[in-house]
Specification:
Layout: E1 5-13, E2 16-25, E3 31-38, E4 41-45, H1 50-60, E5 68-73, H2 79-85, E6 90-97, H3 100-107, H4 114-118, E7 123-127, H5 130-135, E8 149-154, H6 174-181, E9 184-194, H7 200-209, E10 212-222, E11 227-237
Parallel strand pairs: 5-6, 5-8, 6-7, 8-9
Antiparallel strand pairs: 1-2, 2-3, 3-4, 9-11, 10-11
Length: 242
């Protein structure tokens, strides 16, 4: 295997072949890039992580007070989770990912941010189906059924319309979003990453399910295109106690 390209892990999963690889981008000055591929789709690359970071900062910026309990749906390369932990108000972070190998990458130190997450006492990783937990009455923490959180930050599907699994579609409908909101504290926040431009129909569904909802366009440099690219972060806020 060339030192400029290395396959770090390969697993068969119910969603398809999962591959973690590391490559040296000679066209970009030899920088080291980590990539995750699931089936025929590229899930993520360390070359582009600005929106994953913005997901945490935009979502948590809507909260007040201190001692926040936060859920991150989808671990990936860990950028959203690490950005969330930069907020000193975060008291606990529960990461829910359906693919156990992804959690193992962090625990084994195969990805750059693994040590930061596994070394932070506030952080716990759970191999489970985020969407099943979102619609359940017990919520996201099997150790504390019914536990409510201050924020849920979600980065799993490519967008509310472009899904990794067709079974996830119901989550993005009014019933699914209302079920999610029951696991939030009053004044809590749901934030969602999307690789598509703002979707006015979905924004309307969010606004009908929460007290307020907005879409943020996040621009970031794309050296592969020698220009800028854009993604979307949706932020929805649950009504506070009167």
């Amino acid at each position: 295997m060339s030192q400029n390209f290395e396959e770090l892990d390969y697993r068969e999963t119910p969603l398809g072949e999962l591959i973690l690889r590391r490559r040296r981008m000679l066209s970009l000055g030899g920088i080291e890039v980590y990539e995750v591929k699931l089936g025929d789709a590229f899930l993520m690359s360390s070359l582009f992580h600005e929106v994953e970071v913005a997901l945490a900062h935009l979502g948590l910026s809507e909260l007040e007070g201190a001692s926040w309990d936060v859920v991150v749906g989808g671990l990936g390369l860990g950028y959203t989770a690490v950005a969330a932990l930069e907020h000193r108000e975060v008291a606990s972070l529960l990461i829910v990912d359906a693919l156990p190998p992804v959690i193992e990458w962090h625990q084994r130190g195969l990805v750059p941010l693994g040590e930061k997450l596994t070394g932070d006492a506030r952080c716990r990783m759970l191999a489970a189906d985020f969407f099943a937990y979102a619609r359940s009455g017990d919520g996201f923490d099997p150790e504390q059924p019914g536990r409510k959180f201050h924020a849920v930050l979600l980065d799993i599907d490519h967008s509310p319309r472009h899904l990794l699994d067709p079974g996830n579609a119901a989550f993005y409908e009014p019933k699914g979003l209302r079920a999610l909101s029951t696991h939030l504290q009053p004044g809590g926040v749901f934030a969602l990453w999307s690789d598509d431009p703002p979707d006015e129909d979905f924004l309307g569904v969010l606004a009908a399910s929460f007290e307020a909802a907005r879409a943020h366009i996040v621009s970031f440099p794309n050296p592969l295109l020698d220009g800028m690219s854009e993604s979307t972060v949706y932020v929805a806020c649950k009504a506070a106690e009167r």
